[in-house]
Amino acid sequence: MAVLNRSVYHYCYIAALFFLLAFMFATFQHFHSWAGILLALFFVSIALAFRGSRLFKGYWYSVIILAVAAIAMYYPQHFITVGGRNASFFIPILLQVIMFGMGTELSLKDFAQVMRMPRGVFIGTVCHYIIMPLVGYTLAHLFNFPNEIAAGIILIGCCPSGLASNVMCYLAKANLALSVSVTTISTLLAPFLTPLLMKWLGGRYVEIDLWAMVWDITIIVIIPIAAGLAFHYLVRGKVKWIDKIMPVISMVGIALVLLVITAAGRDNLLKIGGLLIIATFIHNISGYFLGYWSARLFRFPERDCRTIALEVGMQNAGLASALARGMGKIATVGLASVIFGTMMNVTGSSLASWWHNRPPRDEPTAKELS
């Protein structure tokens, strides 16, 4: 069976090469109606191949996200409206499902973890809400983007930690308990801190309705998490198939959110996408770098430094997208969240995989223990 599995993954690489060559030919011949499908199939084939690789297994979902982005960029007309309704209408609903999924993974024990490591949770959360908003504001000013694009960069910086950070911390051999705690606390603080920071830093670029944003975050984040927490104690474990399907639903939900926003902002992405990708990359990498060295400054152990780096650098891009939709500016303010959400999956996977093969320096190795 193992030989068969390796053979299947090997064929996926071959299929990926075929689809890549076909994509290049279709593009050269201006068969753009086929090029998008071929590019998406290339990414899907690579993702399937990565599933069978120890080295690249952590990247498979990131590559799927690239396939989704390719489909949205080539065929946006199919994802702007659904059943006669603007597709952006479904973004808050999808986010509520994702937040509910997060809630089902929580328990009161997770909140008890906060009490066991208050210093780490405090520093991680404070670094997150200081570093990312200020870096976003600085980049928006330096790149001199149009007002609504600049506001989008600041908005993604003002959002709480991304859910993917927990997975990346696990892969990076970081402090998973600290990661879950920082993600939880930063998310619960979002209804207060995100609107205030956005009003302070982004108010010069777009009009911010403070209380409307507070309410949007409450119904998108807090209520679904509370419902998920209740689900954890009332249903979880009693219906096995629900336990297995919730993480899948969350991953599909994230992909669909990116699909809708990319399609809505496709024209703006083509005009300003290059510079926005550079700015977003700097934003994301700055979060990792400054988060890590802030933790080193406070003399945290290596595992905790890795955790804080990932918690600072990875944002809840889906929430930023939903807030941009609530402002009625999803095709402009929402653009940075699309690029950031895609990029952080790639950079986060890369960083986590690099750390995975390098045990924390302040922990004894297997050779030292023997």
What does this structure look like?
It is a single chain. By secondary structure, the chain is mostly helical. 78% of the residues lie in helices and 1% in strands. It is built from 16 helices and two strands. The chain has a two-stranded antiparallel sheet. A hairpin with a 2-residue loop joins β1 (81-82) and β2 (85-86). α3 (60-74) packs antiparallel against α15 (335-356) and α10 (210-234) packs across α14. It is globular and about 60 Å long.
What's this, in brief?
The protein is mostly helical and 370 residues long. The chain contains 16 helices and two strands.
Fill in the keyword field for this structure.
single chain, mainly alpha, two-stranded antiparallel ribbon, 1% strand
Widest β-sheet, arrangement of strands: 1-2
First-last Cα distance:
35 Å
What is the strand tally?
2
Number of helices: 16
Strand fraction equals under 5%
What does the main sheet amount to? 2 strands, antiparallel
Mean pLDDT: 86
Query: Order of helices and strands, N to C?
Result: HHHEEHHHHHHHHHHHHH
Helix content: over 70%
Radius of gyration: 21 Å
Low-confidence stretches: 365-370
Helix and strand composition category: mainly alpha
Global shape: globular
- Name the quaternary structure: single chain
